[in-house]
Design goal:
The chain is of the alpha+beta class and about 140 residues long. The chain has 5 helices and 4 strands, in the order E-E-H-E-E-H-H-H-H. The termini are far apart. The structure holds zinc ion.
């Protein structure tokens, strides 16, 4: 049986980990294949994660999907939205002490987006991501 919990990364965001044994898994499996182990229903602030993945991968997926919610990425998600979600996830994983996962995603970043997380091209994203984290600390 999968588990349902509130994301430690953002209040009010619910994470549903769906395991292979769950009856919903058969229906969700094609979506996991298409979207890469996780996806978000932004209106419901609900994240579905493939429970068949390692705990470490699940944390990375959780942080990435919460990033989409924080940035209000709705409808068709563009390549820049993916880079923003990954940037937010790297900073957030590090902030919460998931340094192994943050390092893993930093390496993945180049493969996923064609430029390094630290590349100047990513500066605009970084500022946006950092400002969101600071704003979240105030409210
Ligand atoms: Zn995404």
């Amino acid at each position: 049986m999968g588990k349902v919990f509130e994301s430690e990364f953002h209040k009010g965001v619910i994470v549903a980990v769906v395991d292979k044994g769950d009856y919903q898994y058969q229906q969700l499996a094609p979506l996991f294949n298409e979207y890469g182990y996780g996806f978000v229903a932004p209106d419901q602030k609900l994240i579905f994660i493939d429970g068949d993945q390692s705990a470490s991968t699940q944390k990375i997926v959780e942080a990435h999907e919460v990033g989409h919610i924080v940035f209000n990425h709705t409808g068709i998600v563009g390549p820049n939205d993916e880079a923003e979600a990954d940037s937010w996830a790297i900073l957030t994983l590090r902030k919460y002490g998931y340094s192994v996962e943050a390092d893993k995603l930093t390496i993945e970043f180049r493969k996923r987006h064609g430029y390094s997380y630290n590349h100047a091209q990513n500066k605009r994203n970084k500022i946006k991501v950092l400002s969101t984290i600071f704003v979240n600390q105030i409210v």
